[in-house]
Each structure stands twice: as structure tokens, then as C-alpha cells.
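ok so for the tutorial part 2 we go from a plain amino acid sequence to predicted C-alpha cells. step 1 is just haveing the sequence, like this:
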Amino acid sequence: MVGRIKTVKIGGGIDYAKVADRIKIFWEENPNGKIDTEREDISENKVRFIARIWRDSKVILDLATVGTDINIVKLTANAMASADAAKKGDKENEKLETVAVGRALAMLGYLASGEVASREVLRCK
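step 2 — the prediction. this is what the C-alpha cells look like for a chain of 125 residues:
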């Protein structure tokens, strides 16, 4: 999987796989997968995006069929991003949603370098 994902060089020469490219590979490998995002208002000027990704959406249906609590289903592969998006507008919200999806994909192994990108990683390199 890692060898198939295109990368670009970012700060410090780190190879970074763009989220759009990781999503493409995810769908190729998981045609029955599911990517779900949710926007949550934290406070007046803070929002959080939660991304949940399943390799096979049938898993969700199977869990629902046997009466599994939806909160347990929601624990699968989630990631969050927060910022002052309420003031910055729609584009900032779209960026945060993409960050959340990218982090969730990274948790499932869809990344280039073996590290999940973060501001701390970029500053240290």
C-alpha cells in the first residue's frame, strides 16, 4: 500500500501522502468501505471534526443487526481536528474535515512515512 501512494516533500524533507491520494487508494482496496465525518460545535468559536472509517461497511450493518450500541460502533478508527473554524468560514471547515479523514486513514496504515503528520513532527524535523 505505502509504495502505491504518491508523495510530496514537506518541511524537513518528509514524504507526505496527500489525503486525496490516500482516499483514492482506500477506495481501490476497500470498495465496500465507509468514510463518515461529523462536525461538532465545541464552543462559540471552536469546532471539531470526527472521521470514522471502516474497511467494510457490512461490519456496521452486522453490528446494528445484533443490537450493538451505536456508541461502540462509533469508536472505530476516529480522528479529530479542532480550530477557530467558526470565524474563518467554510474553507477552514473543509480543511479541518480533511485533516480528520487524513488522520483516520493514517491510523489504518494509509500514510507514506510511517508517522502521523502533526505540527510537533513538522517542527522537530
